[in-house]
Amino acid sequence: MKQIKTVLAVFLVLSVVLVAGCSSNTDNKEQAGQQNGQITANDQAKPEKAAPDKKAAKNIKMTVYFPDENGQKLIAAERTLDISTDDKYTAAIKALLQGPKKGEGIAIIPAGTKLLGVTVNKDGLAEVNFDNTFVKKFSGGSTGEIMLVGSITDTLTNFSEVKTVRFLVDGKPLETLSGHLDLTTPVTRMQNIL
Fold this sequence. Notes:
The protein is of the alpha+beta class. It has helices at residues 2-35, 88-98, 133-136, 142-156, and strands at residues 59-67, 74-82, 115-120, 125-130, 164-169, 172-173, 187-188. 33% of the residues lie in helices and 21% in strands.
């Protein structure tokens, strides 16, 4: 009989400890949720809101250039570039690919051209790499070639660190677009068409 009383006493003590522990754990959760102000109507803690996206939009303003309707000069067009996902050079060329708005001139980069990348080295050389649509679908003559090369070159040399531009197609240096301009050496800013 004494053993039964001892077993019952131990069982009673363990039950009290177990119930007290569970109650304490629930109280701790409620206190943590209340400190964060996150208790709902049924006293369940809500998950915390996700932290804001670290890739929040970062914008810069810059000038890009499109040829005028007569192919005599380039027209400056202001753009706000989103550089949260692309570097500023890539964003600038993508703005050219999107084309001009009304009154900003004409689109000169052949439709369907894909930008494969833009890099700028420590010497200020920008390399712009397009897919082969850039050459295959170009249909302009000497004036169109000057306007196209000038549009890209003058847009990129707006960045003070960019001094010259080299054109690549599918990763290989472009020698000429349609036989009128020598592109074997990097192109400097074409101030005469601005």
